[in-house]
Amino acid sequence: MSSTPDAHTDPFTPPQPEQARAHRVYASLLRIAERHAATDEQRHRQVHASLIGPHEAIRLVAFLLSGAAQPDDGEPDVDHADITAALSLVPLVRAEIDELETGLLQMARGRGMTWQEIAFGLGLGTPQAARQRYERLASRAAADAGDPK
């Protein structure tokens, strides 16, 4: 049986959760862009004028390496030191994402969202999985906060 756009209505075709999640990711980006990044001013709220953020630096190196972005005339090629620098930023970005996710989960709960709704948004199968994820992130953040560096 071939896959068609209406395959989800066919009772004999199993659902494809990964395809549904990919569609939801695209729809999520579109929704946020339309509602909160429709103007240049709105899009530049998170951009520092003179320094790129760690996630932007990683993305830039990855795009240049993959050919998704082309270097400007006279711009040096990405070298091993650039790749090492980008890799060095990954733990920082991961920690920032964990912190953002923890805060977003706390705000979602504060706004009355259920663990089931949160699980759906995260692509998790059960409310328990969402709650456990939050607890892991929160305990990691607490451990990092108490860690004298």
Automatic annotation (TrEMBL):
It comes from the Bacteria. Residues 1-20 are annotated as: Disordered. This is DNA-binding protein.
